[in-house]
């Protein structure tokens, strides 16, 4: 178009390279036009149909742009132009206002694929944190595409593995595009093999197995999960074991081994608790997640009070956080547990409310659970035909067949079969399901199926021995699951068989076994027809004597062997105590120093969070905790009013508060609670003597845990404090210097030390940058915690990430053990990164994110590690020049340069030279056991006249040499001649071409401090390959 000027085309080219709509404000900063010119041009572009303008004023190229215009714009947008634009958009003001998709597109068109992929990955992580899963998946798809076309380089391979891992995780967790997972894993596996990344190979099998289970291929899924778990066991480090915990829980769950499954999911809960400060990413969809699993697995184990407490707590917490999708799901699960417990009216209300909300939210998983629960409700109410039609019309979200672990499901199908209800269910035909379960891996369902087979055999008139054999097989299977209710039901049927065979003693024996297994739930679940077999009535049923309770609890406490992780062990203690007493939730409330501060600290918890104890609902409970702390006596309340719940209904709780007395002083209170006051309440029915014995046992166990953890922490502190100071006043680590320039610097450093601001220390080599960093640390609130130093100049580029972030065992070839990184070691202390300018570009983005978020993952790991560190960085390079040349990221520089401190060279410090020399003399006199004479006036003049190109480090070496070589009553100073370059100009002395090359290479090596490779290395500056430079140096006689 002739009416378009060169500036017009340049402006349109900016829109083309940004690929989407941008604001006029952003375009003004990138286009070669003033604001006034741009506004008039936009009107013209719109009138010509080249540009479209949205209602918010943003503009983009027209969707139907003519091909000849697009071809011209593509000719303008060369890679060089895109690179120039990419440099511009690195400015913080543009980063905030430019859509991330536009920034990714610019970087990709500029050939900066790695930066583009990292940006997409970071943006996806942010979207995940903000709850926008679909956007996160779209961004990761983009990152995966970029990384996928650059495979072959180890750096790209490692990034591709990270991206695919997170992409598969999000697709499964949010059930979005789950069918893409197998192809992604197939692409990832050979890359992980090439890297020697055993961790990712283990994870690939775990995720593949989970996918197989989710689509209905349970047997294949279990095989893959088992393979992945074995690989994780072989690696054995903390991170891979943490990641595999929920898969271990799923593995046991699929096998119907619920005790083991509960242990695995509890471990996941402890690792993700607020007290742990860690977060292990979940791979499970919401209906299988550990928070849900703990609830329904507790119910499958007959721990109904705990199941109700967990699910009720999660439901209310989700409501408070406005997370309606999860709240709906938790309420549906809560309804099913209440049905199994016999609280059907309450269950029905929850299920109907959850069904209504699931329909409104289009939450298919929750809707499936609610419809299943309503069918169970109809079945228990005796409305078999209603239950049948509800099951027939149930919306399945699984791809191949239904998935269920509730035994009532099989019993309900058996009831349908006995009533000959038609038409037959295509996906839930009774015989088909019984055969599938009997051939499957689940002990729990297999035990129920065998019991049903025994009932069928009985109806056919089979021999008593044949029926009993089936029931004995059922007993064997159910014994493995830990479910006392289903085991008791099988034993009850065994008692009936014995009765029918006229074996009354045998029948009574099985009836008593059934009764004892049901414990506190006997009245609810024990069949009336077998009551006469018991020697005593229901009001005096056999049970555990109270005096035995304290003994059994003591045995439980003895199992808590102290470990280095005291916090984790305390959480386990609270969880185990809650489970023992049938409490829904519990907490260890602690008063620091034993003082009554009015509000205790929640030191460890089970299903109780800090947000809970701050709520109005917990006010009365907190008052009871404080009362127990003040009087030091156990408090036992049953059916106590506790205000109203979120719906305004009155709450009634049973509560135990046990004082924790350590060395004669009450330090805390163990709080246990459940809300089923109309039930027996498990073991919460205590007398005072038992409560006192149990309180003493709790106190003893907690004291032992804290003592051991305290000794370990003291050992760590001694190790940290024993670390030698590398620079400084050789004796005390103090900075010596009374010159005005140093006094100003030290005053600034002391002021900065009072904050946690990031500090960038600049200065020549040898001026004492690390010493200044140590001073800041020692004068800060972090002084009692580690000061961790890392010198990047001494680390190969390929190992920088491992040094900073650490790596997991098997993360790459040669990673034969887990290694924590320097950032992790600096938790609660100070991290000092020397020669920050030597961080490779590939690690700069990750370092920037760690500085911003204070969280990271080790190389090869996925577990998020939080490190609360204060960063001090140092360099002798000109980072502004490195930014201009593209060797150092602008955004990282701005993050580091919050408080800049410049250490002056020694030549600018006047008489400080003499003060330092005297201190070094005293030090080396003591070290070498020599009596050295003092500096003379001539010595002092010589010292101050010298320019000290090596700064304090050079002075120290000179004085040490002097202390060794001097004799008599006078020092022998061996100062170098006044330093001058061997040549003032490259052309001095009419050198040969080889000599000129030699001089210039030496000059570049001086600039890079001898560094040949990597960003900013001599090879890069000279435009040569590293190997070519090394060959040239050998030919010219330059040593390295």
TrEMBL record:
Residues 735-964 form the Sigma-54 factor interaction domain. Transmembrane segments: none annotated. InterPro entries: AAA+_ATPase, AAA_lid_NorR, GAF, GAF-like_dom_sf, Homeodomain-like_sf, P-loop_NTPase, Sigma_54_int, Sigma_54_int_dom_ATP-bd_1. One of its GO terms (molecular function) is DNA binding. GO terms for biological process: regulation of DNA-templated transcription. Keywords: Activator, ATP-binding, DNA-binding, Nucleotide-binding, Transcription, Transcription regulation. This is Transcriptional regulator containing GAF, AAA-type ATPase, and DNA-binding Fis domains.
């Amino acid at each position: 178009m002739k009416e378009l000027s060169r500036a017009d085309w340049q402006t349109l080219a900016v829109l083309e390279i940004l690929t989407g709509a941008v604001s006029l404000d952003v375009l003004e900063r990138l286009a070669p036009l003033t604001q006034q010119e741009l506004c008039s041009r936009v009107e013209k572009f719109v009138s010509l149909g080249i540009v479209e303008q949205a209602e918010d004023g943003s503009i983009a190229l027209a969707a139907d742009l003519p091909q000849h215009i697009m071809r011209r714009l593509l000719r303008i947008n060369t890679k060089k132009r895109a690179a120039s634009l990419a440099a511009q958009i690195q400015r913080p003001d543009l980063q905030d206002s430019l859509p991330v998709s536009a920034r990714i597109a610019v970087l990709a068109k500029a050939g900066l694929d790695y930066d583009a992929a990292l940006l997409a990955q970071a943006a996806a992580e942010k979207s995940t944190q903000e709850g926008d899963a679909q956007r996160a998946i779209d961004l990761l798809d983009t990152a995966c595409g970029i990384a996928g076309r650059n495979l072959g380089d180890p750096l790209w391979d490692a990034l591709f593995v990270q991206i695919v891992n997170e992409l598969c995780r999000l697709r499964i967790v949010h059930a979005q595009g789950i069918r893409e997972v197998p192809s992604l894993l197939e692409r990832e596996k050979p890359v992980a093999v090439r890297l020697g990344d055993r961790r990712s190979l283990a994870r690939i099998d775990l995720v593949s197995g989970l996918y197989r289970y989710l689509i209905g291929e349970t047997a294949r899924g279990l095989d893959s999960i088992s393979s992945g778990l074995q690989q994780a066991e072989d690696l054995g480090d903390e991170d891979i074991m943490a990641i595999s915990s929920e898969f271990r829980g799923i593995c046991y769950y699929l096998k119907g081994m619920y005790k083991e499954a509960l242990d695995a999911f509890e471990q996941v809960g402890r690792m993700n608790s607020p007290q742990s400060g860690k977060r292990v990413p979940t791979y499970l969809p919401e209906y299988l997640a550990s928070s849900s699993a703990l609830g329904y697995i507790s119910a499958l184990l007959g721990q109904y009070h705990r199941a109700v407490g967990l699910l009720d707590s999660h439901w209310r917490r989700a409501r408070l956080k406005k997370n309606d999708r999860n709240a709906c799901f938790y309420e549906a699960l809560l309804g099913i547990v209440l049905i199994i417990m016999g609280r059907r009216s309450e269950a029905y209300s929850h299920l109907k409310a959850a069904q209504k909300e699931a329909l409104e939210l289009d939450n298919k998983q929750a809707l499936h659970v609610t419809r299943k629960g309503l069918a169970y409700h109809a079945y228990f109410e005796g409305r078999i035909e209603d239950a049948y039609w509800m099951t027939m019309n149930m919306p399945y979200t699984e791809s191949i067949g239904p998935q269920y672990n509730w035994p009532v499901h099989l019993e309900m199908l058996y009831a349908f079969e006995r009533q000959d209800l038609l038409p037959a269910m295509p996906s839930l035909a009774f015989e088909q399901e019984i055969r599938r379960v009997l051939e499957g891996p689940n002990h729990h369902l297999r035990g129920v199926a065998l019991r049903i087979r025994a009932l069928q055999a009985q109806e056919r008139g089979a021999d008593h021995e044949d029926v009993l054999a089936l029931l004995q097989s059922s007993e064997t299977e159910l014994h493995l699951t830990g479910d006392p209710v289903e085991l008791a039901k099988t034993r009850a049927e065994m008692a009936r068989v014995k009765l029918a065979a006229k074996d009354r003693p045998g029948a009574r024996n099985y009836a008593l076994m059934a009764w004892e297994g049901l414990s506190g739930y006997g009245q609810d679940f024990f069949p009336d027809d077998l009551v006469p077999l018991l020697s005593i009535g229901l009001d005096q049923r056999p049970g555990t004597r109270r005096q035995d309770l304290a003994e059994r609890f003591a045995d439980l406490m003895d199992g808590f062997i102290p470990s280095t992780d005291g916090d984790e062990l305390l959480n386990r203690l609270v969880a185990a105590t809650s489970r023992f007493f049938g409490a829904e939730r519990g907490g260890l409330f602690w008063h620091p120093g034993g003082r009554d501060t009015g509000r205790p600290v929640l030191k460890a918890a089970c299903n109780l969070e800090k947000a809970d104890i701050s709520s109005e609902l917990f006010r009365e409970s907190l008052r009871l905790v404080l009362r127990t702390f003040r009087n030091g006596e156990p408090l036992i309340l049953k059916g106590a009013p506790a205000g109203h719940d979120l719906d305004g209904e009155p709450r009634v709780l049973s509560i135990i508060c046990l004082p924790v007395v350590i060395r004669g002083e009450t330090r805390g209170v163990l709080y246990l609670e459940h809300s089923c006051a109309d039930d027996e309440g498990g073991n919460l029915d205590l007398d005072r003597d038992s409560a006192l014995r149990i309180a003493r046992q709790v106190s003893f166990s907690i004291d032992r845990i804290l003592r051991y953890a305290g000794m370990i922490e003291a050992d760590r502190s001694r190790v940290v404090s024993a670390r030698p100071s590398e620079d400084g006043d050789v004796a005390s680590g103090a900075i010596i210097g009374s010159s005005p320039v140093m006094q100003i610097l030290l005053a600034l450093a002391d002021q900065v030390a009072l904050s946690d601001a990031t500090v960038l220390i600049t200065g020549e080599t040898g001026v004492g940058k690390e010493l200044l960093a140590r001073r800041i640390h020692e004068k800060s609130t972090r002084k009692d915690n580690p000061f961790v130093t890392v010198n990047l100049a001494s680390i190969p580029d390929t190992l920088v990430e491992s040094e900073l972030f650490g790596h997991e065992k098997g993360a790459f070839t040669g990673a034969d053990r887990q290694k924590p990184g320097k950032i992790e070691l600096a938790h609660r202390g100070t991290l000092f990164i020397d020669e920050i300018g030597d961080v490779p570009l590939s690690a700069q983005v990750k370092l920037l994110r760690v500085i911003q978020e204070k969280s990271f993952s080790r190389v090869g790991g996925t577990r998020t590690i939080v490190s609360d560190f204060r960063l001090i960085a140092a360099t002798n390079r000109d980072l502004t020049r490195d930014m201009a040349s593209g060797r150092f990221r602008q955004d990282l520089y701005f993050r580091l340069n919050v408080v800049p401190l410049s250490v002056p060279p020694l030549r600018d410090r006047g008489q400080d030279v003499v003060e330092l020399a005297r201190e070094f003399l005293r030090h080396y006199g003591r070290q070498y056991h020599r009596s050295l004479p003092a500096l003379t006036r001539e010595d002092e003049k010589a010292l101050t006249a010298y320019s000290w190109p090596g700064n304090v480090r050079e002075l120290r070496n000179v004085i040490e040499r002097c202390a060794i070589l001097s004799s008599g009553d006078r020092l022998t100073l061996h100062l170098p001649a006044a330093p001058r370059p061997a040549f003032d100009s490259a052309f001095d002395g009419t050198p040969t071409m080889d000599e000129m090359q030699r001089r210039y290479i030496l000059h570049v090596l001086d600039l890079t401090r001898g560094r040949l490779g990597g960003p900013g290395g001599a090879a890069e500056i000279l435009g040569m390959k590293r190997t070519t430079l090394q060959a040239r140096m050998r030919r010219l006689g330059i040593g390295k």
